[in-house]
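Students often ask what a 'structure token' actually looks like in practice. Rather than answer in the abstract, let us consider Epoxide hydrolase N-terminal domain-containing protein, a protein of 402 residues. Its sequence is given first.
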Amino acid sequence: MDFNTLPTYMPGKPEPFTLHVPDKKLSEFHELLKLSKIAPATWWNQHNDGRFGVSREWLTQAKETWLTAFDWRQHENRINKFPNFRIAIDDPEAGKIDIHFLALFSSKKDAIPFIFLHGFPSSFLEILPTMELLSQKYTPETLPYHIIVPSLPNYGLSGSPSENVEMTLDRAARIMHQLMMGLGFSDGYVAQGGDLGSVLARIMSVKYNECKAFHLNMLTLNTGETPPPSDALSVQEAQELKRSETWAQTGLAFALEHGTRPSTAGLAISSNPLALLAWIGEKLLEWPDQREPLPLDTILAMVSLYWFTDTFPRSLYHAQVIQTILKGDALPISKEKPLGYSMFPRDLVLLPEAWVRHLYPNLVFFKAHDIGGHFARLEQPKLFLQDIEEFAQQVGGLFTHA
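Now compare that with the structural description of the same chain:
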């Protein structure tokens, strides 16, 4: 908690926050989970290779672990070791919305502000390993950055607008920008994102001058962009692109459901913990690099946070990304501001180095890794932090005013 001293120039005063799920809510969760029924065996759910989704065997074992061995309070304690805050953001369209964020504040006057944006089905938990590494490596006096890790609007411990206002990509990006302005970083900041967070960072790079640079660990080929000839690819890159194309044909059904029937999906999947575990657990099992899968305890923690915060039915605006692509529209991205891209080979979608350099003249940092998947910040925090620090060195000159 040594990193909780707010910068003196901060105009807004966020309120310290401690996460504590009431005992009554924990008891209700356990009772609901205990009563949640495992569906009967079928031909499809007997397969454990993931081609039809989660298996009956995995769900049965995960339910038992969730009931008997999982310790939510242990994860709460880990979260609360970091400074947690809430601050009210007054958005012109969404109205007043409380935003939760974790932070590591530096006492250095030239510290570079970073905002780390998570995606679906993730949360701020994805960035905790990186924050732990930073807090071990630095003191508040030596930390070269201000680290801001929010719950996205409609996610986790952040609030939602009125039910009469739809959360959209543009609104979410604007609220994240307003957060950084409310924290006093009007001289500039760096946006970093993966999954939905990568889209929000892209939007922020286009719409807001104060977003001086952006780093992504997921980058997609935009509508209308033409990559260079395929002979520019290495054998490994060609293989990873083929794998990504296969996934797009077999693994995108969830996004179409979210985007076209968000009411049905939100109501059905939020009806009981086991339904949520099956739906989100599928992604947390499949999307990481299978050579180093996520531990079950980590999967249960991420799903538990969704359950205790009623995140799932609120969070489905991430499916607008798929809808935008299907309509043939391009996702905004700056080709002027400094861009960094960390390519992890088993991500769902990726761009090989030759393609990125061909399409983005503003690329100042690129790193292709040999391991890591869609949740790279959670899977490979040491590699991720190395990239962030190298990127920070590349763009540090933009912040010499501090």
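One point worth highlighting: The chain has one domain: 51-399. Ask yourself how you might have guessed this from the sequence alone, and why that guess would often be unreliable.
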